[in-house]
Amino acid sequence: MSSQDIVELVKSLSDIERRLLLSTSFESLSLEEASIKSGVALDSVRRAAAWLEQKGFVSVVEKSVEKVVLTPQGEKALSGGMPENIFLETLTRIGGKASFVDLQRESKLSPQEFTAALGINKRKAFVVIINGEIQETGVASEGESFSEQNFLRDVVDGKKIPQESFFELQKRGLVEKKLVVSRTITILENGEKAKDILSSQNISRVYDVGAPVPTLFAGKKAPYVQFLNQIRHKLVALGFEEMYAPLVVSEFYNFDVLFQPQNHPARTWTDSYQLLKPKKARLPDKKIVSAIKAAHENGGKALSKGWGYEWSEEIASRAVPAMHGTAHSARQLVNGVTYPHKYFAIARCFRPDVVDATHLIEFNQMEGFVVGEDLNFRHLLGMLKDFAIEIAGAEKVKFFPDYYPFTEPSVQLSAKHPELGWIEFAGAGMFRPEMLENLGIKGEAIAWGMGIDRLAMFKLGIKDIRYLFAEDIGYLRNAKGVFLGK
Q1: Which of 11, 178, 361, 446 has the most CB atoms within 10 Å of its CB?
Q2: Coil, strand, or helix at residue 187?
């Protein structure tokens, strides 16, 4: 290694590397000794020694050495006292003699510790038993009675203890032999040169600001959750009121209030899910139920003939998972509306379908309606276009005629995805008179239901709707923040 190479390496040394290097020599030092000499914490010494070894400045040698160490019981005896010492101290304190029961109670030794302490002190002739009482003999000296505890202290200090004392303490479970890994550090020739440079020159550390650093992943909400929250915030800011949107509803709200006949194909098992439990849901006030019954059978208060069949309250009361967000609009209409006013819901919906890149059997829908005296179809088209551009960021939109049992006229909104092409993501229309008039609602109501998952595909730039709910940690970590608008 050239002198210039050594200088460049010295410039890159951290503070703990410099301090450790200056404290080393050709004489081997344990890392513990190097820590004391350099004033660097032991953990930092371990790191610095490894770095200096990689640079070729020091050699770190690792050896396994068998050492005598304290067991957990030995550590307890060292800190709290040996049982035999506690035994003698207690006996002296209570008068030099005591019954077995009194001495054990006063010493607070466990039965095992008390028995062991009695045996040791008897063997050393420190105590005798006379007429069922334990008595001191007076021959115990402090040095002799505390010798075992002193040996424990010697073990901690790294001193060698007599072999017979080790065996005695080992038998009592206070000490054991253990392989301890020790590391020593020795300076090398290039390290000595680096040390001389450090000692003779004031060399500042050089930092490579272009070096890679660990990536930090801050906590954040999933992109789709951000998107939903921003839509909610934007609609509230525009004066919309959020509706209650439960996961389970009755067929009354999901279909009947929406003027969808009870023999409609959408109400069969092939197009809707049925619940095993609960099977029934509570219907609203009987006046409302009677009004909806009349709407289906003969048109009720509206200028309509209805569907001309016998409507069943039993069918209407069946509980189902919400199949579209319009079920929540139906609930709001039944509960009453103020007008002019705007309502919305971000609802979880469930519908049998073939799962692919643009379809799921469980999805989110943004539902809403505006009620007022002078609304018309052009208002609806303008609002849908603004939603597609402002919320989804779509550049092109198309409208197609469509059919829904609860709106007339009805329309489908499609928008162009840069990779998937034209995608349908909203159905809309004007609520039928059979709905509004039988519920006593005046004026007109424009309504829509948007596949908000598909809106999110536009905004998040993804090709597969299933990816919105994926657990891909790489995608979630690297996804950028979501902002509505273009």
Answers
A1: 446
A2: strand
> Are 77 and 53 within one domain?
no
Q: Are strands 133-136 and 127-130 parallel, antiparallel or unpaired?
A: antiparallel
The structure tokens 């307890």 sit at: 76
**Same domain, residue pair 391 and 420:** yes
C-alpha–C-alpha distance, residues 482 and 25, integer Å: 59
Helix (H) or strand (E) holding 372: strand 362-372
Q: What are the Cα distances from residue 329, in Å, to 342, 350, 420, 439, 452?
A: 11, 16, 31, 13, 16
Tell me which DSSP letter residue 356 carries.
B
With contact defined as beta carbons under 8 Å apart, do 147 and 120 qualify? no
Tell me if 246 sits within 8 A of 322, measured CB to CB: yes
Residue 146 tokens, joined: 């505390």
Helix (H, G, I), strand (E, B) or coil at 133: strand
Instruction: Please check whether residues 374 and 299 belong to one and the same domain.
Output: yes
3-state class (DSSP) for residue 317 = coil
- Contact at 8 Å (CB) between 384 and 413? yes
Residues 184 and 58 in one domain: yes
∠ CA 20-25-28, rounded to 5°: 95
| Ranges of the chain whose pLDDT falls below 70 | 140-147, 270, 392-393, 419-420, 482-486
Token code pair at residue 4: 């210039």
- Which of 284, 229, 265, 273 is CA-nearest to residue 247? 273
Q: How many domains does the chain have?
A: 3
- Classify residue 174: in a domain, yes or no: no
Evaluate whether residue 275 is within a structural domain.
Answer: yes
- Is residue 486 assigned to a domain? no
Q: Cα-atom radius of gyration of the chain, to the nearest Å?
A: 43
**CA separation for the pair 106, 98 (Å, rounded):** 10
Is the same domain home to 445 and 424?
Answer: yes
Instruction: Let me know whether 294 and 380 are in one domain.
Output: yes
CB hemisphere CA count around 76 (13 angstroms): 10
What is the crossing angle of helices 452-460 and 223-237, to 10°? 110
CATH code of the domain in which 439 resides: 3.30.930.10
Q: How far is CA 249 from the centre of its chain?
A: 32
In terms of domains, do 351 and 305 share one?
yes
Cβ proximity of 48 and 178 under 8 Å: no
* Sign (positive or negative) of CA dihedral 335, 340, 345, 349: positive
pLDDT for 113 equals 85
Is 295 within a domain?
yes
Alpha carbons 408 and 446: distance in angstroms, whole number: 10
pLDDT of residue 129: 92
44 and 100 both lie in a single domain: no
CB within 8 A of 50, min separation 6: which ones? 60
The CATH number that applies at residue 99 is 1.10.10.10
Let me know: does 346 contact 321? Beta carbons within 8 Å.
no
